[in-house]
Specification:
The chain has about 230 residues and is mainly alpha-helical. Among the domains are: about 1-105, no CATH class; about 195-234. It contains 12 helices and 2 strands; from the N terminus they run H-E-E-H-H-H-H-H-H-H-H-H-H-H. A two-stranded antiparallel ribbon has the order 1-2. Helix 3 crosses helix 5.
Amino acid sequence: MQADVPQLLAALPSAGIDRATRLGLSIAPEMDADAWRHLVTRVASLARTATAARQTLTAWLGDALAYGGARGRGLIAECAQAAGFDPGTLRNAKMVCTRIPVSWRHDALTWTHHCEVGLAFSDRAEIELWLSIAEAEGLSTSELRYRVRAQVAARHGPVPANASGASVTAFRLMRELRAASRSLARERHLWQHWSPAAAQLALQELRPMTEFIDAVRASAATERTELSRGLAVN
């Protein structure tokens, strides 16, 4: 079902919105912080009730959060709760909107097409190439996802042909962890200066990650202990 953009737009504060489409929201550069925050909370509230327009409102939330940049610290969790979304959905939407401005988006494609490309690539030329391929070849989202992942896998090296199902999963997980580590390293200048409240929120949202790190550290420590015992016996 296509989103009724004029109806959705009528439910939002008009000040500061330059243009709205089913794929994005263009915000005037002079919008002040209070007006911006009010817009974000209104879009999040609307997303909970206008479920038929969820893709459009996810894109709008992504654009609004991307517009705020670092001012959005801690706001993603608040918006996710208000909209009934998973926080990860909004983090992804913000990333996609940061990488693919409204003016680059292809009207013939869906928001999910843009997500597949925006989450995989950050380079403008690659983004435009894959969006153009998706439109020209009429790729479904699943077809685009397969092609994009094949491209990313080829770039980072193939999974060994003799790998078992469990080792393939481990290989992919390690690749994702390396990507996350690189992202954290690039943004070190931001998270090193988070407030205590933002740090607490981050710990809550990253609980699976911290549990993983604790488990891996414990496993590594156990292996070192067993190795030391073996050397002592020998």
